[in-house]
Amino acid sequence: MEKRRTVWLPCSHRRIEMPKRNKSKNAKGWGSDDQQLPRKRSRANHSSPPSPLCFHSPVRLFESLIHPMGTAQFFNEYWEKKPLHLQRLDSSTASYFKSLFQLSDLENLCSQGLDYYRDINVVRCIGGKKKVLNKEGRVKSSVLFKTFVQHKATIQFHQPQRFKDELWKIQEKLECFFGALVGSNIYITPQDSQGLPVHYDDVEVFILQLEGEKRWLLYSPTVPLAGEYSVESEERIGRPTHDILLKAGDLLYFPRGIIHQASTPAGVDHSTHLTLSTYQRMSWGDMLMDVLPSLLSNGSRTDISLREGIPRRLLLGISEGLDTSRRLASALRCLANQMESEMLEAHSTHLKRDFIMNRLPPYNQHLLSPSEKIPVLEDTVCLRYKDHMVITVEPSQERSDEATELVVFVLHSLKNQRESHMMGDTGEGDDHVVSRGLQFPLSHLQALRQLQQAEQLTVAQLQLPTEEAKLNMVMALWSESL
């Protein structure tokens, strides 16, 4: 809290062993990972060119990413509808894109300790099928480069925002803009080669061409807005709808379900591109699966028809003339009517928790701390990280013999670990999630929503019955740096 006067795998910190000297170097200058001591991550590994992106707000960041296309036009005409290719003729954008990641970055990253499968996949598409060329264990840059050159293999580097600060900065803002997780992969493909077979994805995809050129063939979807990844057969895809050559600085967007394949043309030394992906499992169907359990639970408290027992032997498939589908449809219509009349409120819980638990922490996370002065009733306050917190209404997790009590959780991502972002199950239970936030009585919900919606207000204006309750709530938020 800030005062103003008016006011889908945890990443361990690996021990790095002392490297051995090796005098050999290859023609590309990408030597053995044993040639030098690991270098610390820095905020700028290269002399950084000026950024064409604007980081003043999540909206401004997205606007600058798709410039000169306008945001309204993009969402009206392209989002979830059709591909978009933006060509960038200025050298400044190409230089900036290249600074995000390039082939030469891999040597230093390998020296920091990368593992096959978890951090890097080495693949090649042969005869329409993906061949995995991974070794076992730790990645050595000399072996990786040899496979890259001799086998014309594609290097797929998972979630580079864990290591590259500028990508952390971009993706953190994009997660605020979309209100959804944003993952990334780097693909480095040698000339006259293809890494992955024809397939479609379950995510919205933004391709940034960083080095070289890549040819993309796009096809009409067999499953529009697909909910899962799948390889497609050559016989089903028909002719390409788009044949696009991406050059350094270009951007390509296509919706989930669009079938695609990509290859580096002959005569191009190599291609490096960044894939930014978002909106996985963010459909209305996913939302319904999230809110229906709580709707049914809350509806059952007031509607006796939902508490009536099902007929005997129904589970054995003997319904004795009962139209089960009609009875269930009637119950769902009743719930829908109560929602429309605001007798019942739909609470999204799991989608919110999954997002806030797994997203990136704020950029410059190490600067987070409570403001210096403890807030008092006369202070005007506001929430500092609205885009990094969610409010959920859930049953209390405290076990008791009494009826389950609903409480309010304020969960936030300020303490999330960048190193584990988008790397799978963190293995953290509900207790750990609660430790990243606060629990309040249900009576505090309106005051919390006041803070969410207002630019600023005084502590005394909070809709709580006592001064003590107001101060206790803002003190709790202040202690969490919110």
TrEMBL record:
Keywords: Dioxygenase, Iron, Metal-binding, Nucleus, Oxidoreductase, Phosphoprotein, Ribosome biogenesis, Transcription, Transcription regulation. It is found in: Nucleus, Nucleolus. InterPro entries: JmjC_dom (IPR003347), NO66-like (IPR039994), ROXA-like_wH (IPR046799). The keyword Transcription regulation applies. Transmembrane segments: none annotated. Its main location: nucleus. It catalyses: L-histidyl-[protein] + 2-oxoglutarate + O2 = (3S)-3-hydroxy-L-histidyl-[protein] + succinate + CO2; L-histidyl-[ribosomal protein uL15] + 2-oxoglutarate + O2 = (3S)-3-hydroxy-L-histidyl-[ribosomal protein uL15] + succinate + CO2. It is an enzyme of class 1 (oxidoreductase). Oxygenase that can act as both a histone lysine demethylase and a ribosomal histidine hydroxylase. Is involved in the demethylation of trimethylated 'Lys-9' on histone H3 (H3K9me3), leading to an increase in ribosomal RNA expression. Also catalyzes the hydroxylation of 60S ribosomal protein L27a on 'His-39'. May play an important role in cell growth and survival. May be involved in ribosome biogenesis, most likely during the assembly process of pre-ribosomal particles. Residues 12-51 are annotated as: Disordered. Belongs to the ROX family. MINA53 subfamily. Its cofactor is Fe(2+). The keyword Repressor does not apply. This is Bifunctional lysine-specific demethylase and histidyl-hydroxylase. Gene3D superfamilies: 3.90.930.40, Cupin, JmjC domain-containing ribosomal oxygenase (ROX), dimer domain. GO terms for biological process: ribosome biogenesis. One of its GO terms (cellular component) is nucleolus. GO terms for molecular function: histone H3K36 demethylase activity; histone H3K4 demethylase activity; iron ion binding; peptidyl-histidine dioxygenase activity. Binds 1 Fe(2+) ion per subunit. Its EC number is 1.14.11.-. Residues 159-295 form the JmjC domain.
